[in-house]
Specification:
The protein is an alpha/beta fold and 198 residues long.
Amino acid sequence: MFTSRTPSTRDFVSESTTITIGDSTADSMTKSQFTLMDSVYRRLQQVDDDRSRKALARKLKDKYERACKVAKKYPLKCILDQFENTTFDLAGKRVGPEHMKLAAITLLKNEYVNELDLRDNSLGDEGIFYVTDLLPHNIYITRLNLAENNIGIPGLKAIIQTVMDNILIVRLDISGLRDTQQLNLKCTKCLLLKWNNQ
């Protein structure tokens, strides 16, 4: 069972216990009653989190649509569908650098997205610059897939610098670089050192 001296301290003692929070004491309850109350509380928290996520997603969709209107671009459904997900998955959607800029502006304040899957989107160096500008401002993104995006030396340098400055990135895929013959060995060595030191 459960005795609590503070709201966060839990000690299982026996089959029946008294719950004390602060100076107030509740009646005795069994372990199963406490478990039921705890599961109800967790479910209510989850419902509240879902409501918060949906509310934020609505705001982000509106923000993206406004940014598209200002840029005189049509909002892409594949981007609008991603704002409630923890993985912003645009793999193979060919959004291009212009829409990546608009999506990056929208993702600045998104605390639910923790992975960007942008592989095979023809972002080029310009689109990569928008992604690397986003990452220092969004501390929740920890995984990044930029494979097959026609990335050249300038884009690679921007990625390396961003990853070196951002210790929160734990997974990065940049396979399929454009100028593999001209890759700057120094940048590649810096990236390898960063990953080996984690």
